[in-house]
Amino acid sequence: MDLRARLQAATKDAMKAKDSARLSTLRLIGAAIKDREIAARTGDGDGTLNDADLIAILSKMVKQRQESAKAYEEGGRLELAQKEESEIGVIQEFLPRQLTEAETAAAIDAAIAALGATGIRDMGRVMAELRDRHAGQMDFGAVGPMVKARLLN
Fold it and tell me: Which Gene Ontology terms cover its molecular function (predicted)?
């Protein structure tokens, strides 16, 4: 079952179960996907999104909510931070499993070896390779410094 079908099935299940918090998050996901489809239709595009596009949307939504939760916690608004955390949980159900630190290090080494990267000027190619192979499976903000450290050695 593709990602879009899983999202639609989960939305129907949440409606039947009268789970308003989960339903609200799933509807936010649906709205974000619709917005991206409309944006893709402008110009020459046909507006269809593949699973990689959907994973990118979901990853962005998780990152936004993590930042919001942190801001709420710093501001002493723990109930809002908890709501953001629960939304993150729902969104992450549809993302691929995140790689462990050891798996991430192995993926970086494999990408460097596959490209024959030798120096820091190859960092962009290595990051692009990792994005192609592991979209949604790793935090590229944290991976960048790891790649840089490996290329400098």
Answer: carbon-nitrogen ligase activity, with glutamine as amido-N-donor
